[in-house]
Amino acid sequence: MKINLITVLLFTCVYSANSNGECTYKEDAWGNTKYNCTDGSGGTLKTDAWGNTKDSGTGITYKEDAFGNIQSSDGTTYRKDAWGNTRGSDGTTAREDAWGNTVITDGNSTTTCREDIWGNTKCN
Q1: Over the stretch 76-100, which tens digit does the pLDDT of each residue have?
Q2: Residue span of the structural domain in which 17 resides
Q3: What pLDDT is stored for residue 11 in this prediction?
Q4: How far apart are the first and last CA of the chain?
């Protein structure tokens, strides 16, 4: 679930109204993911004992259902297709390219997220 959930969280952070700049994501010692964006927004992604992940920056909560789909509290559903792409009911798509980068598209723009040698994931 973690890989699928990270992809979903990248969707949300990259395309949310609060994140219009480049963002950097870093997992802390407690397993939470902290993110900061060049536009000044940021937050922490925390997963509780029931498997719900809450984004403190957007207030959105995510939960994986019995079919492996991710349901968000804003009504968006994310699921993997037969080719391994993650598709959102909001029209976004994420896939991994040949270099291991996550490429996110929404039909109008493309964002690429990559991990650096220090474990930070940066999206542009």
Answers
A1: 898 989 998 989 898 888 888 999 8
A2: 2-123
A3: 63
A4: 24
Cβ neighbours for 7, distance < 8 A, ≥ 6 positions apart: 78, 86, 94, 102
User: Length of the chain, please?
Assistant: 124
Q: Which two tokens stand for residue 27?
A: 């997992």
| Domain count of the fold of the chain | 1
Handedness of CA 75, 103, 19, 43 (dihedral sign): positive
CA dist., res. 23 & res. 15, Å (int)? 11
27: Cβ contacts below 8 Å, ≥ 6 apart: 33, 34, 119
- Report the predicted TM-score, pTM, of the whole model to 2 decimal places: 0.75
